[in-house]
Amino acid sequence: MYTQRKGEVPLEHYFTNNPYLKSEIKTITYEKENCRLSFKSDNGVFSKDKIDYGSSFLIDTFIKHNDIEIKTGLDVGCGYGLIGIVLNKKLNIKFDMIDVNRRAVHLTEMNIKENKADCRSFQSDIYSNVDKKYDLVITNPPIRAGKKVLEDILINAQNYLSSDGRLWFVMRRDHGVKSMQATLDSYYETEIVAKSKGFYVVKSKIR
Fold first, then answer.
1. 196 vs 207: CA distance, rounded Å
2. What's the pLDDT score for residue 130?
3. 0.85 surpassed by pTM
4. Pairing state between β 188-196 and 199-206
5. Strand pairing of 72-76 and 94-99?
6. What number does CATH give the domain 26-206?
7. What angle do CA 153, 154, 157 make, to 5 degrees?
8. How far apart are CA 73 and CA 84, in angstroms?
9. What pLDDT digit, counting tens, does each position of 29-44 carry?
10. How big, in percent rounded to 5, are the helix, strand and coil portions of the chain?
């Protein structure tokens, strides 16, 4: 939990909890291929002003290239709930969505209700409050949280995947996606599924 020190400027990273950060809720619209969804966003969450390209690219790539039946999913670092809610509405995947940021979880809960999605959201420091397995773990991981957090999210996803489950994630080339893929090759069979504007979408299956 974030604690402000005397004289310190409040943090605004989307992977922290800052009780001093002013709320300014706004509405973002996702509209693609006859799917129109409305999302509440706010200060202190990732990509607060617009749909993030990496997340949108991950969604599109998963819809186009997923080749197994997926009934349940876990969206790690869900922000205001974009990935899980869109995939629920378009593919009928039932999602749990988690974030360490309480404001993000609250926004996701609002957006689940707004879009009538079959999802739930709860606060979790990575997988600390996750107690079951899923067909899919999907994430646009918080790069600024550092390498240790990224590895924790991606490597330990294997513990929350069903026997034939998949991990999907998106990362920029200049954020070290090739190095991360090499690290993950010790745990998964990994495949770069698509590339666009410096973003790579990676699919992984437990070895």
1. 27
2. 98
3. yes
4. antiparallel
5. parallel
6. 3.40.50.150
7. 80
8. 8
9. 999 988 999 999 999 8
10. 30, 30, 40
